[in-house]
Write a structure and sequence with these properties.
419 residues, alpha/beta, TIM Barrel, 2 domains, 9-stranded mixed β-sheet, 8-stranded parallel barrel, 12 helices, globular, binds pyridoxal-5'-phosphate
């Protein structure tokens, strides 16, 4: 469910006419719906009402402070993967005690900063990282709260580039190694073992892989408890999918049902790290048609948003619905590729898509762009990154200004020996 709907032939963001935003802010622009964000958080969190739980929003999906602040106010925490995300989460008002830190490559200074902030837990991904975290905590005179990210070797049945829980993926430790590392960790002086973690992939459309992963983690937890280890947290990661096209992902309630019973039986506090399911359908990318053209083989609609703004179609072959902001009275249909201005054949937002006939100057909305949209955008081809706007009812505000060319060249200089 989201709040981007047509009213009298005009696509609105909640109650705001998208043409107005395009006029005042320009295009391309990301637009988020506050009511949709709020609803998604509530539906997700309340699905887990039957378990002691904490929703740690996966910040990397959409790092906007306005988005994070909203979830923090609703009682959420944050799942971070870098020192930059730590700073932004704290700035957004997420209490440190609700922050978990994931990722395979945390640096020593990032670890130190997170320890000083007093985060809830590090999800460790290697034996070397364990040594480093123990040493850094010792230097600071604190105990580092840790879990290991276990790689349960289950197939998430999603796109290979967002599958993370297979033995061949770089993430986590396999069951046996994890068991050994827990024993090693329990002998270290500057650690506090908190729990067990996993994250098996993204855009999952079935509950079975989550359930299978949990069953494997439960066995490990029982083995660890058999060795006298006290565990209090079980972090099941994120990954619940959304509808981009025809997908029918599990509802948050179905997802919760697959997990809650086991977690309660184990007497653990459940941590969830949803990203996409909270923000994906709460955002769109508003873009304008620059040109239309035809080759003997194809029709193309060239818009002013490119793969640097929305990388997902290029990177994951993902589908995003594309809707005209103004519905034509009698719409003739065409089949075309919607492409951006970037000098790459891979720069497309849609391929062989049936669309109403579009012409130069028309506005279109690229739907379901709230997750891994702006957050993955770049300056390739020296293109300033898009503006971001939040809408709430009739109100709207720029929450991130469009970059300027000056922003892009700041910090750049010639070497002193160049004439
Ligand atoms: C990316 C990521 C998430 C969020 O995944 P979604 O599919 O967006 O829910 C959660 N946890 C970790 C460790 C991640 O890397």
């Amino acid at each position: 469910m989201h709040h981007f709907q047509y009213h009298q032939g005009i696509l609105l963001a909640e109650e705001v006419d998208l043409r107005l935003i395009a006029e005042e802010v320009g295009t391309p622009t990301y637009i988020y719906s506050q009511a949709t964000l709020q609803r998604h958080f509530e539906v997700f969190s309340s699905a887990f009402a039957g378990a002691d739980h904490l929703v740690c929003y996966a910040v990397k999906a959409n790092t906007s402070r306005a988005v994070m602040a909203q979830f923090a106010a609703a009682g959420g925490g944050a799942d971070i993967v870098s020192g930059g995300e730590l700073v932004r989460a704290l700035q957004a008002g997420v209490p440190a005690q609700r922050i978990v830190y994931s990722g395979v490559g945390k640096t020593e200074s990032e670890i130190a900063e997170a320890l000083q902030a007093g985060i809830l837990m590090f999800n460790l991904e290697s034996s070397q990282e364990l040594e480093v975290v123990n040493r850094v905590a010792g230097n600071l005179g604190v105990k580092a709260p840790v879990s290991f990210r276990v790689n349960p070797d289950v197939d998430a049945k999603t796109h290979p580039k967002i599958t993370t829980g297979l033995a061949k993926n770089k993430f986590g430790l396999d069951m046996e190694l994890a068991f050994e590392q827990y024993l090693a960790a329990s002998a270290m002086d500057h650690l506090e073992i908190k729990g067990v973690s996993c994250h098996i992939g993204s855009q999952l459309t079935q509950v079975a892989p989550f359930h299978d992963a949990l069953e494997r983690l439960a066995k490990l937890i029982q083995r660890l408890r058999g060795r006298g280890m006290e565990l209090s947290l079980l972090d099941m990661g994120g990954g619940l999918g959304i509808t981009y096209d025809q997908e029918e992902p599990p509802t948050p309630r179905e997802y919760a049902e697959a997990l809650q019973e086991t977690v309660n039986r184990l007497g653990l506090r459940l941590i969830l790290e949803p990203g996409r399911v909270l923000v994906g359908n709460a955002g769109i990318l508003l873009t304008r048609v620059l040109y239309t053209k035809s080759t003997p083989a194809k029709r193309f609609v060239v818009v002013d948003a490119g793969m640097n703004d929305l990388m997902r179609p290029t990177m994951y072959d993902s589908y995003h619905a594309i809707l005209p902001v103004v519905q034509a009275a009698e719409s003739r249909v065409m089949v075309a590729d919607v492409v951006g201005p970037i000098c790459e054949t891979g720069d497309f937002l849609a391929r062989d898509r049936e669309l109403p006939e579009l012409k130069r100057g028309d506005l279109v909305a690229v739907m379901s762009a709230g997750a891994y949209g702006f957050a993955m955008s770049s300056n390739y081809n020296s293109r300033p990154r898009a503006a971001e706007v939040m809408v709430a009812g009739q109100r709207w505000a720029v929450i991130n200004q469009r970059e300027t060319i000056e922003d892009l060249t700041r910090g750049e200089s010639l070497p002193p020996w160049a004439g």
